[in-house]
Amino acid sequence: ERTGAARATVHPMIRPRVLAVDLDGTLLDREGAPHPADMRAIRAAMAAGVGITIVTGRLFPGTRHVAEVLGVTGPVCCADGSHLVDTRTGETLAHRGIRGPDALGLQQAVGRARAATYAFTREAIVYDAGGDTFLEYLAAWSPTLERAASVLDHAVWQGDEGVTAVVAVGEASGIGEAAAEIRAELAHAVQVLTFPMGRQSTWALMARAAGSSKGAALEPLARHFGATPAETVVVGDWVNDISMFEAAGRSYCMGHAPDQVKRAASDVLTETRDSGGGVARAVAESFGIAPSRGPRQSLG
């Protein structure tokens, strides 16, 4: 049963034309494979002429194979809107990095947190020995990993294209102080999000260029299909999906999502990342497409 229909704006008079799906926690299971019902639904929607795109926090190397399996041949949103890529050619369509003095200020702030730090380029995740503990979690975002002697001394902070994103994981107090410093000194260039990592004393910080978000990416993604965000249906499960929930014509939130995410969606699903079927439900209800059953698809 959906529980969020009265919580956000739905545009029932606008015929949906585009479906934008999050990956981890939405389309993919805990092993990174697409749920079979959702895969069938996406392929049926594509065959019916619905534009299909991906909106993910992953970097493009961690997104490419999923796009190939889905048959997505247009632009996709990676790194939570910081990088738009043409899946056919791998060409960067837009990239918003943190550059120059702002990148160096971010470097210093996370350095003072004494946390496991990961610096993202368009393609790779740069880390050092201090990041080994959480590497398995982050490796799904990109198979391109670069182990450096010291991530804080790496040239990525001074590169022309800038840092695509930064993740730091450590004690709650240090992460909180770093986030407060970034918000106070770098709000013009950097947006920062903090969240717990399962244990009360361990928190993570995620920093990206100000103005980049999944919501902002919906307009150019929809435009590729001759549509608008109001003609787009989105499905997601986490706080980085709230901006696209607010921008889309209709938004579906997975059943395991935090309450603040559910409140932002027009529809809250009972389906979860473990059960799958959330994307299939969104396709059936928004586009009137109920695919036939078929064999499980694999990313292997």
Description:
The chain has 300 residues and is an alpha/beta fold. The protein has 9 helices and 14 strands. Helix content is 29%, strand content 21%. Strands 8-7-6-9-11-10 form a 6-stranded mixed beta sheet, covered by helices on one side. It is globular and about 50 Å long. It starts with 17 loop residues before the first strand and ends in a 13-residue tail after the last helix. Mean pLDDT is 92; it is low at 1-11 and 294-300.
Strand content: 15-25%
Tell me the major beta sheet. 6 strands, mixed
Mean pLDDT over the residues: 92
Total strand segments: 14
Topology order in helix (H) and strand (E) letters: EHEHEEEHEEHEEHEEHEHEHEH
Compute the CA-based radius of gyration.
19 Å
Topology of helices and strands:
Elements: E1 18-21, H1 36-47, E2 51-54, H2 60-70, E3 75-78, E4 83-86, E5 92-95, H3 100-112, E6 116-120, E7 125-127, H4 135-138, E8 145-147, E9 165-171, H5 172-185, E10 190-196, E11 202-209, H6 214-224, E12 232-236, H7 242-247, E13 250-253, H8 259-264, E14 267-268, H9 278-287
Parallel strand pairs: 1-2, 1-12, 7-8, 12-13, 13-14
Antiparallel strand pairs: 3-4, 4-5, 6-7, 6-9, 9-11, 10-11
